[in-house]
Amino acid sequence: AHTTRYWTLLLALALAGFRSPICSPLQVTVISGSRRDGSATSLWLTMLRRRLPDAVFDSVARIRHPRTPEEEAWARMIRAEAAAWPAAADSLGALFDHPLVHQVRVVLGNRGAEDAFTHDSLTIGMDLAALQRIYGEAADPENRDRVNRFFRHEFVHTLQKRWLVRHPFVPRSFLEVALLDAWAEGLGNYFSLSDRWHPTEAGPAPETVRALTELEPRLVTRMAGLACADSAAAQPLLDGLSSGPFTQKWGALPVALWLLAEESTHPGALHTFAMEGPMGVWTLAQRHLPPAARH
């Protein structure tokens, strides 16, 4: 009788849409990285310290910069869009077999950083000043979609950080440093791709064709050089792999575009790549590079 009542209760809870605390949806908390007096919060400064050289950090840390009306508009728009992010995060979690994530915080600063970045497995940063400077007014219709792409990109990085805790990957060479970066940023940049990159019934988008024609030879050359590079030669070869202008990211963008091509025709390609880890970059490249470039 007790067993029957137990299962009856579980069925009733399921029909009522009950979700246990263990399976509760992700909570996305948006918090300010600046105070009313224009100073940065301690959390934002902690995030910057990890990213900036000491001299630059010391200079930025002294800044008093109250939010401008334009930055406030970005903050309001981000908070509004964040209401839909838990649902987006749930689908992204499937790429990594739904790691247990209860909460992610998005910190809105206004100094010292790029548009969006991942601090750790729980914390994403967005710099309102950088967003305004690079993309203009928050009210621009493209910026709503852009902010949602940024969240997906950075949230994937929080999942990758959790995956790497369970599946450690310690680079033993500069080539493996590049593979780790290409895996992390290639998957992240996939979620940054706007519609202009997506294929149509006629085939790959012209932007995609141009980018791969330019970047695939660079990827092959740089990876080949990194295979035997010492510390002095490695850094120039690594430059631009996942940083700089989006269309010039010689490692991250080709990986993102290859994934776009595969996911468009073979749903599940993203999950496979995510779970393969950094070495999955090799198998992905083998499927997409022209035969003469594979070595």
Describe this structure in words.
With 295 residues, the protein is α/β, with parallel strands linked by helices. It is built from 13 helices and four strands. It has helices spanning 2-15, 42-51, 54-61, 69-81, 85-93, 128-135, 141-166, 174-190, 206-226, 231-238, 252-265, 269-276, 280-288; strands spanning 27-32, 103-109, 116-120, 123-127. Helix 9 (206-226) packs antiparallel against helix 10 (231-238). Residues 9-23 have low confidence and may be disordered.
**Helix-strand topology string:** HEHHHHEEEHHHHHHHH
**Sheet with the most strands?**
4 strands, mixed
Distance between the termini: 67 Å
- Give the number of helices: 13
Strand line-up of the largest beta sheet: 1-2-4-3
As a percent range, the share of helical residues equals 55-70%
Class from helix and strand fractions: alpha/beta
State the gist of this model.
The protein has 295 residues and is of the alpha/beta class. It is built from 13 helices and 4 strands.
SSE inventory with pairings:
Blueprint: H1 2-15, E1 27-32, H2 42-51, H3 54-61, H4 69-81, H5 85-93, E2 103-109, E3 116-120, E4 123-127, H6 128-135, H7 141-166, H8 174-190, H9 206-226, H10 231-238, H11 252-265, H12 269-276, H13 280-288
Parallel strand pairs: 1-2, 2-4
Antiparallel strand pairs: 3-4
Helix pairs in contact: 4-6, 5-7, 7-8, 8-11, 9-10
